[in-house]
Amino acid sequence: MTRFASSLRPRGQKARASFVLAAAALLASGCSVSPKPLTDDENVSRLREDMSVIMAPQEPITGPVSMHEAMARAIKYNLDERVKLMEMAVANQQLDLSRFDMLPRLVAGAGYTGRDNESGSESLNLATGRRTGESTTATDRHRRTADLGFTWNILDFGVSYLRARQNSNIVLIADERRRRVVQGILQDVRTSYWRAVAAERLLKRIDPLEKRIEAARKNASTLEAQRVQAPLQTLSYQRALVDTLRQLQTLRRELVAAKSQLGALMGLPPGENFTIQMPPDVTGKDVPAITASVESLETYALLNRPELLEESYNARITADETHRALLKLLPGIDLNAGLHYDSNSFLLNQRWADYGARVSWNILSLASAPDTHAFSKAQEELVAFRRQALSVAVLSQVRVAVVQFRELSQEFSLNADQAAIDRRIRQQYANSSTVGQQGDMSVIQAEVSELVSDLRRDLVYADLQNAYARVMVSAGVDPMPEAVPSQDLATLRQAVSDGLGAWQQKAGGTARLQDLLVPSATTSEKAPAQRAPAENASVEKAAEPTAAPMAARGGEPVDRKAALPERVTVAELPTRPAAPVAGSMTAPMTVSYSPSTRAEPTKVYSVPLSALAPMARPSAR
Question: pLDDT value at position 595?
């Protein structure tokens, strides 16, 4: 028996060595990972998947596209809007998952255990120091086990509850970011629509004029070859024609992409053709009006701007993070219970239940409690200061947006008058009986001057519409209601139309900022001494509202103490500098004309006619 056991030892050692070598080889092969670029098949598969979404069928365009329909299509099919909707869906799923973290752990397990020999052992007599010499066992060679354990850590429950509250605020932040994207998309659609209208009107007039200029160039070349006139006079005439043709080509380049940009904002596949509903020719009487007072717009912006609401939710998340950090310093209490089964035949009870409780506390963590509390409070103060700086920037944006709108309104009126004058001048040249190349050149120059004046008028009108939308966006007004009965285009178009027609009533029904900052009669007596002198009096001509402060979207009364930060005073608001904030509208406007709607400032565009002023205007955005 002893020889048999000794003969088995080398074989067992060899088996263990082989197992170790196999495990080492498997581990080494798993660690040797090399970069593998995408294959052509993988790229083609990705392209097909992406284009199936981009080129997904949409509701067909059955007629000319109006501005409201373009906005409805942008809300439904724009990919940026879809991204924000998916982010909201992911945030909601994360919130649903975090709720399960608050539940106790209930773990079920089952297993099988076996061995190739008996689990025997000898014992030692402590009194005599001798071994008993008898091998005994209390475990079967093959046995089955099953467990059902319940564990609940009260400290972990509190931490999971705070994490779930943070995730709920993340859902609200995702909603505010979606609101901001929708507001920006609608502003861009408005500007792109009016630029596309200008392009449709003027491109039809450029083609015949270019043909006339080409014909005049051929006649001039014939006169030069025949030496009918002095060479210098003929060359000067040709140079003026070429310069005029170059100006028309520049106009074409600035306008040709406007319709494509509108289609991209609407979510149409690239290259899809559509027609634009052409509104009547704009005149000086077509200037949109802002009837809401600046003070109401300021208050509404402070209560409803997505950026400010996002910072408020960030303040909640930071406060919960402070509570989590302090909660982790407390002792943990574990409650546990379980049901067990073991098929071991030597056990007296093969089925049993156990339960218990345990308290554990890392006492050394108390040393970091003061620093943890100080760090958490510093984070809360940082979020508060950032929100207050953003509030000042928002106030500045509202005032700047209103001032720019008023200035562009006056500028558009002047451009409309100039376009009307150039139209009458062109008619005088057309009705004139002057003949010869000088007469033809004068008529062409008059037509170009009229064309450029119309272009300037229409582009300034597009900038005016953009400034009108910027006032609405700076005030944080949602042109869409929170709940839309259906997502079809007809319902969305009607909702957009109703929202754009009623946004000033919604924002104008808010109380003035000064009224919200005076909580009691005692402080109201001191308010006149604290108020800053009125600035920009021309901007504040609108009537002051008398309605009670109402929430932006819910229509419920606003808590005046919680609505605005206590540190902001009326005297500070016009003078405190605005902090640089992403998407801030306080940056100086770059003089440019660009067909893009949301692009950065581009080159200055001017028409180098001696009789025309430079076309330097604020960019679309």
Answer: 38
138 to 7, 54, 116, 119, 539: CA distances (angstroms): 27, 69, 16, 8, 94
Q: Are 342 and 164 in contact (CB under 8 A)?
A: no
CA-nearest of 616, 560, 450, 585 to 180 is 585
User: Quick check: 590 pLDDT over 80?
Assistant: no
Residue 529 vs residue 326, higher pLDDT: 326
d(CA 394, CA 568): 13
CA–CA distance, 55 with 75 (Å, rounded to integer): 16
- Both tokens of residue 254? 């600035």
Q: What Rg value do the Cα atoms of the chain yield, rounded? A: 39
DSSP letters of 183-244?
A: HHHHHHHHHHHHHHHHHHHHHHHHHHHHHHHHHHHHHHHHHHHHT-S-HHHHHHHHHHHHHH
CA 382, CA 388: separation in Å to the nearest integer?
A: 10
CB 141 within 8 A of CB 118: yes
- Taking only the tens place, the pLDDT of each residue in 146-185 is 999 999 888 888 888 999 999 999 999 988 888 888 888 8
Q: Name the pLDDT band for 290 (thresholds 50, 70, 90).
A: confident
Cβ 494 vs Cβ 429: under 8 Å? no
* Torsional sign, CA 405, 406, 408, 413: positive
